[in-house]
Structure formats: structure tokens, C-alpha cells
Design brief:
single chain, alpha+beta, 3-stranded antiparallel sheet, 2 helices
Length: 116
């Protein structure tokens, strides 16, 4: 029996139960954000070393089923450190961090609600 006929029979059999068709399902996405700080000896290495480090990080998570999305720069304000009674205090400052974003489909499925 075709899926359409099964759905029609189920819908005709009861008016209280909503029939969920494959079109009503959507995959839930999971996201992982990983900090990335490259290290480079400017006297001996080029930016190719940074690219290699990023590539290894992407491959590591790809092997775990994660799909690389993008490299994001996140800026944050680091609060000042008042020190002890004002001695040794440090002013606040802006800092920028690189974050690697990955995603994958969750094993769970969600039913999309439809309004009639």
C-alpha cells in the first residue's frame, strides 16, 4: 500500500489524531564552537603553518562527524583588575578570539507543528 493511501486511511479513521507525514519532520542541528589560537614562530615559519594548524583542527572534528561552517572572530571586553587596594591594578581592554564553528544533524528528529 502506498504511503499516500496509508495516510488517507489513517486520516479518515480518526479526526482527533494528527497524521505526521515525512514532510512534517525536520532534522535538528547541533553546533559546536571551538576556540582556535594558532602559534607561529615569526622568524622560522610562515602563515602556511597557521593554515596547517587550522586544517588539522577541522579534520579532527570532521572525523567525528562535524561539518566545518566558518571561522568567526569574537570580540569581548576583559574587565579591569583593580588589584589589591589599587596596587597592581590593570585596566580593562578589548580582546579578539577566533572560534571555529561546526554543525551536524542530530540523531533526534523534531515534528514541525502546522497551524490549520
Amino acid at each position: 500500500m502506498k504511503l499516500k493511501n496509508i495516510i488517507s486511511n489513517l486520516t479518515a479513521a480518526t479526526t482527533v489524531q494528527k497524521v505526521v507525514t515525512p514532510a512534517n519532520y525536520c532534522k535538528i542541528m547541533e553546533y559546536k564552537v571551538v576556540p582556535f589560537t594558532a602559534t607561529l614562530d615569526q622568524r622560522k615559519q610562515s602563515t602556511a603553518v597557521v593554515a596547517e594548524q587550522l586544517g588539522r583542527l577541522i579534520m579532527h572534528y570532521s572525523n567525528e562527524g562535524w561539518k566545518y561552517i566558518r571561522l568567526e572572530s569574537v570580540s569581548t571586553y576583559v574587565q579591569p583588575d583593580p588589584g589589591c587596594f589599587g596596587v597592581g591594578g590593570k585596566p580593562g581592554y578589548m580582546a579578539s578570539y577566533q572560534m571555529v564553528v561546526f554543525s551536524k544533524e542530530s540523531d533526534n528528529e523534531s515534528v514541525v507543528s502546522t497551524h490549520d
